[in-house]
Amino acid sequence: MTGLRRPPFWASVFALMSVLILCGLGTWQLYRLSWKTGLLAQIEQAYDVDARIIPLHVKDFSSDLLLKRGYLDGRFVYDKTIRIGPRTRDGAVGVHLLTPFYVPGEDVYILVNRGWVALDAKDEDIRADEIQGAVRLVGALRQPLHENAFVPDNVPAKGQWYRMDLAQMSNYAGLPFAQNAVFYVEGCDGCHGGQFVHAVSSKLELPNNHLQYAIFWFSMAGVLVGVFAVRFLRNV
User: Fold this and answer.
1) Which CATH architecture has domain 51-188?
2) Domain ranges of the chain
3) Helices 210-232 and 9-46, interaxial angle, to 10°?
4) What pTM value is reported for the model?
């Protein structure tokens, strides 16, 4: 006479809990997939508009926005520029230039990512790309990026900047920086040069691997069920 073996109690409990956890992880990844898809759609929508005709106001940039494109009128405060790095471009190592930008009517300065420069770039060469006086910048306000735990802490006293800490940078420069956004330049009226300062893309590139992760976790749950069935539920 044949029948199903009764699986051990604790093995059944362990298998059930493991399957629930794996399915929970898969479900969480599906939720993240929906969330990330919405963010990517928001980014694409932002680049469907002509930024040259949209005035930007930092106070209107809410925390639920990843970025908003348009233009800012104001002037740079070059002597307060902060170099943050290392940053790479085409395999070369350099830094990004973060320069405060004064916008009339705003009660804060906006930190502008002017672009990438090589580590060995001379100060006089960088100054050759500076624009004096009033200027209109076209680009995007973006939420400041949060670096991972492996990025070193900033050392303001030595002018060493590794992570985007706007409060710390504001205190260092002695200027009230906007804490909710950084501006990335796409172009400007009266721009010239650009030989030494290379613009950084204003577009956020967000990886979206959540579907693959969901498939992996659900597959692991299926494998565990299969192994359990073969080990404990085969006919005897």
Assistant:
1) Beta Barrel (2.40)
2) 9-41+209-232, 51-188
3) 170
4) 0.80
